[in-house]
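pinned: reference chain
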Amino acid sequence: MKHETCRILIADDEPIERAVISKTIKNYFGEEVEIYQAVNGREAIEIFRSKDCQVALLDISMPGINGLEAAEEIRRGNSVCSIIFLTAYDEFDYAKRAIRVQALDYLLKPSAKEELITVLEEAVHLAGIKERKAKERPFVSEEEQEKERQELMKNQLFSDYIRSYIEAHYMEDISLQDAADQLHYSEAYFCRFFKQNFDKNFIMYLSELRVEKAKELLEDMTINVKDISQKVGFRDSGYFTKVFKRVTGVTPSEYRYGLL
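pinned: its C-alpha cells
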C-alpha cells in the first residue's frame, strides 16, 4: 500500500540556505517527501495553506512577517502540524514564543545535518501517525485531536526539560528522585515516564552520559583518571572504571591508550 508523501515547507529568505536544506532533506527522505519553498513569512503562510503542508521549517529572521509571526498564523489554522524553527539567534524570548506555538523543535544555525535530520524524522513520523489515525478514525472530534496533540507536546516538553536537567547536573550526586521532584512526579510515575520516552532507565541514561563526558576529558592527557571520575559525577574512581568498562568494553586507561 502506497503511503502519501509528507509535505514539508521550507521558509528562509536566504536562497542558498533554502537550497542546502532542501537538498539535505531530499537526499535523505527521497520520495517520502514533497518540498515547497517560501522566501518570506507571508509566502510561507500562503504556500502552507494552499499545499496543506504537514511540516513547516521556518527561519525566524525574515523580512516583513517573520518566522514566529508566520508560525502563529499557521498554528491558528492547523493545530496538528509540526513546526520547526531555525535561527542564528539564541534568544530566550524566541524560545518562549516557540513554546507558545507548540513548536516541535528550535534549532540554532548552522545546525548540524544530523540534528536537522533527526528532528525531521520525528516530524515525518508524526505526520504518518496523524494521517493513519485520520483514515482509521475519520470522525474523531477536534477536541480529541487537540487532546492527543497536547499530550504529545507535553511529553516532548517534559522530555526536553529532563534532558536539560540531567545535562546541567550530571556531575553532581543526583538521583532518580531528584529528577522526579523537578517535575513534581512520584518516583514510580517518573520511572515509567522516563522508560517510555527515553527507551532506557534513568540510571542507564545518566551513566552513559557521564561516560560520554568522561571520553571528552580523557582526550586531555594532563588530567588523571581519578580526577575525571570526580568531574563527571562519580565519587568512587573504582566504580567509575566498572561503569566505563560496562558501557564501552574497555577501562578508562585502555580507552585513553587507544587515543595515542
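why pinned: The CA atoms of residues 130 and 243 lie 41 Å apart. The mean pLDDT is 85.
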